[in-house]
Amino acid sequence: MIDRARIDLGGYIVGRIENSGRIFEMLMDPEKAWEAKKLIREEINTRLKAGKKKSRLTVDELLNDRKIDLELIFESFTVFEDLRRGKKATDGDMEALFNTTDGMTIAGHILLDGEIHWTKAQRVEEKEKKLKQIITIISKNAINPQNKKPHPHQRIEKAIEEANVKIDLMRNAEEQVDDVVKSIRAIIPIRIEQVEMAIKIPTAFTAKGYNIVAQYVQIKKEEWQSDGAWVAVVSLPAGLQMELIDKLNKLTHGRVQTKILKT
Questions:
Q1: Which in 95, 98, 180, 231 has the greatest CB count within 10 A?
Q2: What global pTM score does this model have?
Q3: What is the pLDDT of residues 238-254, one digit of tens each?
Q4: What phi and psi values does residue 259 have, to the nearest 5 degrees?
Q5: 2-116 domain in CATH 3.30.590.10?
Q6: What's 120-191's CATH class?
Q7: Phi (first) and psi of residue 200, to 5 degrees
């Protein structure tokens, strides 16, 4: 009888927030909620990179964000204590926890800080995307310390699988790289490190060559020689050195000069 009394959610999902033993639930569109959470995470990451002290969004900021439309995300602004049984939250409980009975404001709290039950397909898609990002970052920034060469993508992916690494869907890829590297170190020899390299690009290729180099490295010293050649000492992730050298060799037809100074 209890199951028959439950509300059919159709294609919607439940957003829930719990505080002081009280539960508040609202009905959400899964795709639009997923996109909104990604926008929120991107904004937080942007604020962190900019060095802002307060990276967290407030409910007021969310309500005034033109990129996020709560009316499209939430099926309605009715707040429930138990949504599946159709039991609405009381005004007293809402006032006690949120100082308001306004459903849109409470919807903002749920979207920012609540628990959202994603669909299985969404979780699988996001996990695969984040895993690829992590593997790419590791392959570009880490090497095998035994031969000083980067690991192939497939080897890193296999090591992550063997180490049973859990990918956190709510953290960005960059934040998880160090933890993943620590976890797979028992499976494969791996180390994240920078290398210093001296580069000399002949006069005829300096413009395009400089643009290529700038995409990969931090330039520590540079000098334009009397014949127009560009000479520099650069620092770059160890896993990118071969890719950079290969591109410069193709551009200059093998006339670029490179030398590893230290690792």
A1: 180
A2: 0.56
A3: 778 888 999 999 999 99
A4: -150, 130
A5: no
A6: mainly alpha
A7: -130, 120
